[in-house]
Amino acid sequence: VVKMVYNQPSEMMGIPTLRFGFSPDLFGSVKEYPENQCYCQDTWEYCQKGGVVSLAPCIGGAPVFASRPHFMGAHKDFIDGVVGMTPHGDYSSYADIEPHIGLPIKATLRIQINVELEPYESMPSFASVPHVMFPLLWLEEA
């Protein structure tokens, strides 16, 4: 379950709607949002930095994390760790809801799936890999 909060009034094809977006605590650090500790497990280093959320509890412990595209709003270390990240523009996810009957009129999900890369001495090709959060996939569904 992803908590969404009201952002602003909006309109779709002349129909007034209310726009809801991800709660600010979704990708927040444990320092800012202590309740996010339950998602940390063995990823304490990343929990101290805002911008990613571990998916490990949902997928058997794999080092997979979700973030906004291009690490938008994330800690500088995530952005600087990978060449080509440009965290500007509209990378928000939202749902426009008709206020009287609660019907979703429009929704957009923008999310980036990342894997934790780290050196692995037993495999020569991974021995000198930097320890970074590596973007694997960027999804945009409307």
Automatic annotation (TrEMBL):
A GO CC term assigned to this protein in UniProt: cytoplasm
Database matches in InterPro entries: CD36_fam
Pfam families named in the record: CD36
Descriptive protein name: Uncharacterized protein
GO molecular function: scavenger receptor activity
Annotated family: Belongs to the CD36 family.
Keyword vocabulary terms for this entry: Cell membrane, Glycoprotein, Membrane, Transmembrane, Transmembrane helix
